[in-house]
Amino acid sequence: MNPSVLVVEDDTALCDLLAWNLSAEGYDVRSTGDGEEALVMVREQAPDAIILDWMIEQVPGIEVCRQLRKDKETARIPIVMLTARGEEEDRIRGLKTGADDYVTKPFSPRELMARIEALLRRSRPALAGDVLQYADLELDPTSHRVRRDGEPLHLGPTEFKMLRYFMERPNRVLSRQQILDGVWGMDSDIDERTVDVHIRRLRKAVNRPGDVDPIRTVRAAGYAMDVS
Amino acid sequence: MNPSVLVVEDDTALCDLLAWNLSAEGYDVRSTGDGEEALVMVREQAPDAIILDWMIEQVPGIEVCRQLRKDKETARIPIVMLTARGEEEDRIRGLKTGADDYVTKPFSPRELMARIEALLRRSRPALAGDVLQYADLELDPTSHRVRRDGEPLHLGPTEFKMLRYFMERPNRVLSRQQILDGVWGMDSDIDERTVDVHIRRLRKAVNRPGDVDPIRTVRAAGYAMDVS
DNA sequence: AGTTCCGTGACAACTTGATGACAAGCCACC
DNA sequence: GGTGGCTTGTCATCAAGTTGTCACGGAACT
To answer: I need a labelling partner for A195 at 20 to 30 A (CA). Which of A34, B45, B164, B175 fits?
Structure first.
């Protein structure tokens, strides 16, 4: 699922420009020009990041920011403040209120994209490509968690390392020796056939009845994980 | 303990200015003008944030940034790039390389301070004086108080530090060694198994009968606090 | 049919984490 | 200075989870 961004901006032309750019980068974009509505939308849709103009109707941007930070549910959503006011005082006030970044008009859309990406990378590593995935398989090396189709799976340490080894090398046939070296370490004198057994265990842990087996056996060569 | 910042800047005057400002805000400041040395210092001192000049001796700042991001131990330290080059391309390149923010000279020290604080707030909320709050657990670093579901809990000093260490790093698997380094200090020669015992004590203090245990044991790896 | 290669169930040895107990240390307060 | 209550680092022990092999049977290839 793509990361979603809420754009709060009452200049329609600018709003469209941003929306277009963000979409092109693969974000799901929603937008509004109204502060009150923004607060509602955030609660309903829980976007992954917010671009917030300082000067909008109904509620000033900075007030929206304050409100969002106050509520536990929304306190951790990254916010980029956007404004024509370039004064230092304003920038500092924006940042102190809880904005994560502050960009002054006129700005470069590409730079704004880069800043959004940097923020997402920090707040939701899962959205910035840190998490390995194959179709409905998902492996997070940091939190050591594996999911299939959203369901958490339980893998033993070796199975985990092995799955990770495969997911880091999708679509490649890996020989038993390569797998031994990669998962057990270069200097292990373990029987090659042992790999078979662990492949079986991994399959058993990953596949629920009716699932497609993501691990392909390549006769006389080894195993591979298919990513299509 | 105050948050620590490493300043990597070879213009001595500017370096001192930054150091002075940061100290005044209560940060522990270290500095160097050399890229190679910076890499060593980061590994040794694990600062909470880094201010990095693009143009420094030995190794270009962007290369330092790349190196830091490559290493898992240092990948999550917030980095602010600092530079005279105001070109959009450079800014975007800096951000894409993994910098979290990018400030162009000449800049306002106060704004830089605000940006550092905003970054710390996101990466280590406790350092910015915020209350850490996940699920029904609540830890206030300032008043040294912990609550679960509103109920005040009684934790020993070590348990408190440990819980805080976990809450500052939610969802991450932490090895026993990391926990020892973070809670007891880098230079403690304490048995790794001792961590187990303190985990038990923390669990006992935090979980009332029927509660979900927020601390997950990851076999052969360590422990993690789950929040999502 | 013969050969090679892989899947599988069983299993005993081994790791690893949880737990209760305990003595030493620390501290505040008499 | 003494004392009792907490805290804390280690240990020994226990239960559970994990792992490397093996033997057998079926599948694939020649």
So the answer is: B175
